[in-house]
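User: Hi! Is it possible to get a structure for several chains at once, not just one? Here's what I have:
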Amino acid sequence: MDIGILEKGFQQHVDAEKKIEAKDWMPEKYRNTLIRQISQHAHSEVVGMLPEANWITRAPSLRRKVALLAKVQDEAGHGLYLYSAAETLGAERADLVEALNDGSAKYSSIFNYPTLTWADIGAIGWLVDGAAIINQVMLQRTSYGPYSRAMIRICKEESFHQRQGYEMMLTLCNGSPEQKAMAQDALNRWWWPSLMMFGPTDKDSPNSALSMKWKIKRKSNDELRQDFVDNSVPQAKILGITIPDPDLKWNEERGHYDFGTIDWEEFYNVIKGNGPCNRQRVEARKTAWEKGRWVRDAAVAYADKKKNKEKDAA
Amino acid sequence: MKQQEVLFQYLLRLGDTNLILGHRLSELCGHGPVLEEDIALTNIALDLIGQSRILLSYAAKAEGQGRTEDDLAYLRDVGQFRNLLLAEVPNGDFAVTICRLFLYSAYTCELLTLLCDSKDEYLAGYAAKALKEATYHLRHSTNWMVRLGDGTAESHHRLQTALNRLWMYIPELFDGDAIDVQLQETGIAPDPNVLKEKWNTRVNAVLAEATLNRPPDQWMGKGGRDGIHTEHLGFILAELQYLQRAYPGNQW
Ligand SMILES: [Fe+2]
Ligand SMILES: [Fe+2]
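Assistant: Yes, the chains can be modeled jointly so their relative placement is included. Here is the combined structure:
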């Protein structure tokens, strides 16, 4: 069939708000865009385990320790669903992991920042999971069926993480002066990187228009970022800590908060691999993978032996 | 020793061992050999620390001094910990991690089965719940024992080496003392000798299937249950207790 007709049919299907499923025809660029986006998302879940796992052994109470372990375990589960969603498009998980390990695949820039105090774990739950939810709520309605369904499943857990993180911040802010200072310091360090999570401004993100047309995305980076700022300001007020942005103020006319300019030089540097923890994060993933090689080989060898034994017996 | 004091000590032994082994496994979170295994080991760490919370809370109650699970976990020093030394052993490679979990889970499965009939109702209730988790830990680690033992030459060698290394910590599991005797007499805890027999049967079967040699039994000094630990525990506690020690008295 003529590719133009196929493309037209595809677009009509999308415009009618129907989901594209794995076996449906789709433009190659739609497929590749999705593989890239979903695998980056999966990598972010997996790399995102590292800064939080950094505090599991030092959690300040057994209740907090168990909650943090459960949270990091959820993130690993999100990684698994997302790798599976990418596989429905014909990608191989082993190749995707390889690309993460050799540094060629991207993941969310936020996880290249260090977790320096316990309050960082609260700030990540509150801000980073909070930013992720804003993006993922939108993606629940993405045009690709398997991705949309993975997001619906994941979003429930993310909102639990966000509430848990916020509650940790609240406890710190109602605690001793040292604890409150710890919370403020975490907000100072995580605020701007959280805003960067939504990606470049609309005028600098050329692929966005096509993603919107295909309904992979439904809101632009800047719209999502604005939602995040509008949500976060009243939350910070309740905590009694200050968002580190002197330009932040309510704009009556727009019905939104205005906020200062993001340091895009920092953003692009972190994306390029020069962030404070890029090298450690990729190295940790690579080391785990390489150290696990003999284990994976043994599992394959054992399965083969077992299969042969069964064949001999039959 | 008074009955409550004996019970307190016994609960510390169980609770501390789960806490320290759970801590060790939690160190691996994010670093597993494959994502599915990362999830499984984190899950087991969660179970063990969850169990230790129940045990330490009950220990605090038995002690009757108004302490909490966190007071016990965060504000005791090395000499007051009562865990088995096996739990403190560093994670090493995946063979050590799995072998340690297998040897311990084989022990807790037998222990918890017998504790289900304890005259202490609370402990019996705990055992029934924890046994389900321990059964999964044993199944998971047994599967790996067999896969690694009968996998490649390298995995076999690594696992046999791990087993040989860990074997010195086994006698402590069954080393009954006055506390065990008193609890056995009152029907609260089982006879360590009965446990040992059941453990041997189970472990021997798995070692045979995994094509591993059972190491010869060896002498070892007394340890964890009297507060004499390996050099590792101090570092574990330095990490585990850091925030409570650096900011005393705060709520988190
Ligand atoms: Fe997640
Ligand atoms: Fe999350």
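The pocket of fe (ii) ion (ligand 2) is lined by residues A 75, 129, 158, 161 (CB under 6 Å). The beta strands of chain A are 249-251, 256-258.

User: Great, thank you!
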